[in-house]
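Researcher: Quick sanity check before group meeting.
Model: Go ahead. Protein one:
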Amino acid sequence: MIRVVLDANQFVSALLKPGSNPDAIMLLVREEKALLLMSESICDEVRRVLAYPKIFKRLNLSKEQCDLFINGLRAVAVITAGTLSLPPLAADPDDTKYLECAVEGKADYLVSGDHHLLDLKFYQGIRIVDPLTFLRLCGEYSQDGQ
């Protein structure tokens, strides 16, 4: 099974845009066609991003609903131990958490829209791609999922 790490914005995009490529990736996870890898620091970042006033307002979710979403992710994901410490990513040290999770969880892919990560292309054998490329590589892209 394909092992994948998603950055926080992929989860937000999946919630904001049903039928989007990030939403299609989440469907692959729910259908057990891809194994989602997360760490506690990624869960914390998703929670923080969902609480941003602009996003919180657009999603119209209560704090409890946000917590349920995070708990749902935790239920379908493999949560890595979080013991690996890599040198901070020079372009954006905060993105290092995704690389640590990917390496620790032996991910095949890290999916992001962040150019700081995408510019790496590969990290320790892990391919870093945008959502559309991931879906194409998995053979799951359809013209509807943008």
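Researcher: Fine. The other one?
Model: Protein two, sequence then structure:
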Amino acid sequence: MTTLNIVKTVYLKAPPSHVWKFLTQADKLALWFHQGESDLQEGGDWALLTNSLGKEGERMCWGKVVEMKSPEKLVHTFTHPYLNEVETVCTWTLEEVRGGTVLTLVHEGWEKVEDNAFAMGADHDIGWDEHFGRLRRVTS
């Protein structure tokens, strides 16, 4: 089977140390993605909570933090109910450049999804585009 990886790169007008907070702190995740259950910690579990009417505060996606090298690299697993317990992996790299940060996300493992892997990956590709638009606004 073909390896299906989502690769996104965004240019943010803020230093890596500032961007890092928006990837790892529960309250800052809420500004562009979803409210975190708690701040991310290496080796720990993480979860984002829904703000959907009637389901506020329920876990919507979760995983385990595999690696944290502040403010350069974050690796965590990622799953949610629609993935039927299949864990994908998100690797975030932050590269300091003059005037800001080049943030790259590689979200891999979509080929492990048994039912319509391509469609599931494509939907998440669209979702990351939407979230990154908000991330640009809140980190500037």
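Researcher: One line on it for the slide.
Model: Strands lie at 5-12, 35-36, 45-49, 59-69, 73-78, 88-97, 100-108.
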